[in-house]
């Protein structure tokens, strides 16, 4: 059975892949279809009470979002999603996780950090796929990045503020491919934007304004198999009773 398209037409070929590999992130502005945006908003709104709960167990569920919503689960093996992932990671891939990253009004944001996967094996990659359903402006729950930081494959980049990052981890580092000193960049994303990011890339999030609406966001992770993934969020129940068409992507190896 064919699935409704989630992406409008876009280009991601050799030139775009080279830019992604150089910088560690790549924007695909406005590629989510209007219907996908509607469905995603509905699904993320239903799961948001988990994320806002004072019960740690309920908050925990937001990191397994696709297991609690059939629409989110249907995107794991969506043909357009897999086509994009194969262009980035090659033929052999696994689903790693799906979590909500909604930012309600007044959310304080998140400091600089990175994640790890197969840190000493550059042939293995893990990619984050952010769906920014209603987008963001540069000064309102914006994603911040350090182009080229992923080349260091450092899973422990930290910085509570921009200045802490500049005076700490960033100090003296250069882009391994261009030789240019590393520096941070604040992104902007129109409604329906998808952003790709390598797992080792340094990133942070600015605060959400009090008079803004909730920024609806979900992230999917995919990887090359070969190493254990600390970011893998798939329950045994989901592995044993997978959403139709996803079983071949769920192996931990």
Order of helices and strands, N to C?
Answer: HEHHHHEEEEEHEEEEH
The beta-strand count equals 10
Number of domains: 1
Under CATH at level 1, the class stands as Mainly Beta
What is the straight-line distance between the termini?
29 Å
Helix fraction bin: 10-25%
Amount of beta strand: 15-25%
**Average pLDDT taken over every residue:** 95
Task: Write down the CATH topology.
Answer: Jelly Rolls
| Estimated radius of gyration | 17 Å
Q: What general outline do the C-alpha atoms trace?
A: globular
Unreliable segments of 5+ consecutive residues: none
CATH architecture: Sandwich
Major sheet, described briefly? 5 strands, antiparallel
Helix/strand structural class:
alpha+beta
Q: What is the number of helices?
A: 7
Multimerization state: single chain
Strand order of the largest sheet: 1-8-4-10-2
Task: Give structural notes.
With 253 residues, this protein is of the alpha+beta class. It has a single domain, classed as Jelly Rolls (Sandwich). It is built from 7 helices and 10 strands. The longest helix is centred in the first third of the chain and has 19 residues. It starts with 13 loop residues before the first helix and ends in a 13-residue tail after the last helix.
């Amino acid at each position: 059975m064919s699935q409704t398209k989630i992406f409008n037409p876009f280009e991601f070929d050799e030139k775009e892949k080279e830019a992604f590999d150089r910088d560690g992130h790549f924007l695909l502005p406005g590629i989510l279809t209007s219907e996908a945006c509607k469905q995603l908003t509905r699904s993320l709104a239903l799961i948001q009470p988990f994320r806002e709960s004072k019960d740690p167990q309920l908050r925990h569920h937001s990191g397994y979002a696709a297991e609690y919503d059939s629409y989110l689960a249907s995107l794991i093996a969506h043909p357009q999603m897999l086509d994009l992932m194969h262009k980035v990671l090659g033929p052999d891939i696994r689903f790693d996780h799906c979590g909500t990253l909604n930012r309600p009004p007044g959310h304080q944001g998140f400091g600089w950090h990175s994640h790890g996967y197969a840190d000493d094996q550059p042939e293995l990659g893990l990619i984050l796929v952010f769906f920014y359903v209603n987008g963001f402006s540069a000064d309102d729950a914006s994603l911040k990045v350090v182009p080229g930081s992923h080349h260091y494959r450092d899973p422990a980049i930290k910085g509570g503020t921009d200045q802490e990052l500049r005076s700490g981890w960033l100090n003296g580092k250069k882009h391994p491919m261009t030789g240019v000193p590393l520096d941070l960049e604040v992104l902007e994303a129109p409604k329906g934007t998808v952003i790709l990011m390598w797992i080792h890339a340094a990133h942070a999030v600015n605060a959400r304004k009090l008079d803004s609406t909730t920024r609806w966001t979900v992230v999917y992770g995919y990887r090359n198999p070969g190493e254990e993934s600390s970011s893998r969020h798939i329950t045994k129940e989901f592995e044993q009773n997978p959403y139709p068409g996803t079983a071949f992507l769920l192996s931990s190896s």
